[in-house]
Amino acid sequence: MTDRLNDEEFLKQYLSEDPSEEFIEVIASTVVEEMSESFPELSLKSRPMEDVLDDFCDEKLEEVNSTGQYERKLNYLQTYLEGEACIETTDDLSSEDVEQYYKWRKNESLDRDEPLSDSTLRDDMYLFREFIQYLIEHRMAPVRFEKSVKIPEVEYESGEGVDEKKLDPEIAKAALEYLRKYEYADVEHIAMELMCQSGPRKNGLRGRDVPHFDYEEGILKYEHKEASPLKNNESSEREVTLYGDLPEFIQDYLENRRPDETDDEGRKPLLTKGDGRISPSMLQKIAYKWTRPCAVGLGCPHDRDPEECEAAQKNNSAYKCPSSRAPHHIRTGYITDQKNRGVSSDAIDQRCDVSPRVQDLHYDLPDDTEERERFEDEFRNAEEDPDSGFNHD
């Protein structure tokens, strides 16, 4: 596309058709590059991101009285830029990297299953915006990057906002069908089966051992242990029935694919790749990897070319796909789908260890159509009452 920027007629036609942000960014980048050749003082500086972060952190910590809280926030910023986005120099930072910090900080930066609260996230995003402004002020990032920083709105009168993302049942079905055909009984297949078919918490799932699976009974036991605690300690202990062919899938994995692995506690983790118990970050990556529509045989709903999309090409960048979902979102999608099918709140509490009140607040998120369909039978039955004066003939 860059070559065609020299075509005046092409530019006139394209700009008259409500051009995309991507196209505008290409034009802006081209203009900046050409101006920089004539005016070197306008060009962006390139510095090692590690040095820039050190300078920003030192400057920020000098402004505050209590450094502990800011040090933690700054550590998350450094972890994302250097560890997750792999930014080595300021030249490497893209607008998409800036946009994705919101998603990473909310859903992936903590070991716990629940997303970061909007109030905490808002404060961290303010700090992140300060960092982007710092880069812009020192000519290490373009001005447009500041627009890519999303600050969440918090309505204190109605309580903090709820993360309304959930895995679409269509994508869940496609993912499992794909894995059963092409990655059968691999640890990633089994992890996705368990997440999609029982809606566990991430840390509860990774803490399961081989003896917790009973093939004959077709159940998975959740037992609280100090080294791998359940969210509500002993109160979270339960047995979960595994339906359909899932017990067979797990047995095939144990007999043919699971490495002979024992962890530091002398336990045999159910989910392992041969290097100890599977980590929370690995479960995150598995979830994001296999909930990309394009990765499981579905088309891209975002009109992207998979050959040029970083989220499609790199598994470590799968979280950048707008449709990809974390384990928490799979859990939310599972619970919402069960409620749509008429499963009671008490039954879901037993299976997923989540109270009816918390279900209503955080996990049961039907759209308008799903909510209407839930009550259709009740109104249909009422319509059949011949004694009602409000019935239709």
Features:
393 residues, mainly alpha, hpI Integrase, Chain A, 3 domains, 3-stranded antiparallel beta sheet, 17 helices, 49% helix
Q: CATH superfamily membership of the largest domain, which one? A: Intergrase catalytic core
- The low-pLDDT segments are 156-161
The third-level CATH topology of the largest domain is hpI Integrase, Chain A
State the end-to-end CA separation. Answer: 64 Å
How many alpha or pi helices?
17
Polypeptide structure, described:
This protein is an all-alpha fold and 393 residues long. The protein folds into three domains: 2-38, no CATH class; 49-158; 169-320, Intergrase catalytic core (hpI Integrase, Chain A), CATH 1.10.443. It has 17 helices and three strands. The chain has helices at residues 8-15, 21-38, 49-61, 67-84, 95-107, 118-137, 169-182, 187-198, 202-206, 246-257, 280-290, 310-313, 327-340, 345-352, 356-363, 368-374, 376-383; strands spanning 213-214, 219-222, 238-241. It has a three-stranded antiparallel β-sheet. Strand 1 (213-214) and strand 2 (219-222) form a beta hairpin. The longest helix has 20 residues, at 118-137. The radius of gyration is 25 Å and the shape is globular. Mean pLDDT is 85; it is low at 156-161.
